[in-house]
Specification:
By secondary structure, the protein is of the alpha/beta class. It has helices spanning 7-17, 20-23, 53-61, 83-94, 104-108, 114-122, 150-158, 188-193, 209-215, 229-243, and strands at 32-35, 44-50, 66-71, 98-101, 125-133, 136-148, 165-168, 174-179, 198-201, 218-221, 246-249. It has 2 domains: 7-102, Udp-n-acetylmuramoylalanyl-d-glutamate--2,6- Diaminopimelate Ligase, Chain: A, domain 1 (3-Layer(aba) Sandwich); 108-227, NIF3 (NGG1p interacting factor 3)-like (Udp-n-acetylmuramoylalanyl-d-glutamate--2,6- Diaminopimelate Ligase, Chain: A, domain 1, 3-Layer(aba) Sandwich), CATH 3.40.1390. It is 34% helix and 25% strand. α3 runs parallel beside α4 and α6 crosses α10. The radius of gyration is 19 Å and the shape is elongated.
Length: 256
């Protein structure tokens, strides 16, 4: 049965559950409702990593009330509604589809977040905050229940997709893992400081290659997209299971 939830109630629900007020000062993104709809409803929620014409069009075709994304339209400075930004806004408004975006709070959340999702996938134990960003730890670290190879961890994290980069410079039998999803290659230095066997992020960087080599740590760069599908999927599943909303996940991989 379809649950009729108001958009204002949806906003309050996510602001509380994802702790937007506490995390927003550390985030350049605008977290929360970015575009409204005329009906003021949020009964059908499409979830995607990125707002783009493809995700908007798929959400509208599915008759979503809300498109929930990790990467929204607004990033700390005024945006002119011209070019591709105008086309995105036009598609949202003409489709009467609201847009809701949550950035760093969705990385950092201890159960619904991107990093928590990867930790669950790996079965990590004794999970703790890790990866400091502007004074807040947005990633997590933990211990595998049994030793795994770098290739096995990559398979668990990336499935059939090839990771963007592997640095096999650490122990062959991996037990301790630090995770910061998306574009956080420099956090490999924090993993080195904490003596971890493996660091996982999305985007590789030449600048940490020699540090990882000389410190003897493994690094897995699974892709920005693939390391950030976990949060939007988790939120969609939670909204459906706990709050009776109709949800779907729109998979639009970039390969990056």
């Amino acid at each position: 049965m379809r649950l009729n939830m108001r958009l204002t109630e949806f906003d309050r629900l996510l602001r509380g559950a994802l702790e937007l007020a506490a995390a927003t000062p550390q985030d350049s993104a605008y977290n929360g409702l970015q575009v409204a709809n005329s009906r003021g409803e949020a009964a059908r929620v499409a979830c995607a990593v990125d707002v783009c014409l493809e995700s908007i069009r798929r959400a509208v075709e599915w008759k979503a009330d809300v498109l929930f994304v990790h990467h929204g339209l607004f990033w700390g400075k005024p945006v002119a509604f011209t070019g591709f930004q105008y086309r995105r806004i036009r598609e949202l408004v003409s489709g009467d589809c609201a847009l809701y975006a949550v950035h760093l709070p969705l990385d950092a959340h201890s159960t619904l977040g991107n990093n928590a999702g990867i930790a669950r996938r790996l079965g990590l134990r004794e999970v703790q905050p890790f990866g400091e960003h502007r004074g807040v730890k947005i990633g997590c670290r933990g211990e595998l229940p049994e030793s795994l190879s770098l290739e096995r961890v990559a398979s668990l994290c990336c499935g059939a997709h090839a990771p963007l980069g592997l640095l096999p410079f650490g122990p062959q039998a991996i037990r301790t893992v630090g995770i910061v999803s998306g574009g956080a290659p420099q956090d490999a230095l924090q993993a080195i400081e904490e003596g971890l066997d493996l660091f996982i992020s999305g985007e590789p960087s030449h600048t940490v290659y020699h540090a990882c080599l000389e410190a003897g740590i493994n690094a897995l760069f699974g892709g920005h997209y693939l390391t950030e599908v976990w949060g939007v999927k988790s939120v969609g599943e939670w909204l459906a299971a706990e709050h009776g909303l109709e949800t779907c996940f729109l998979d639009i991989p970039t390969g990056l």
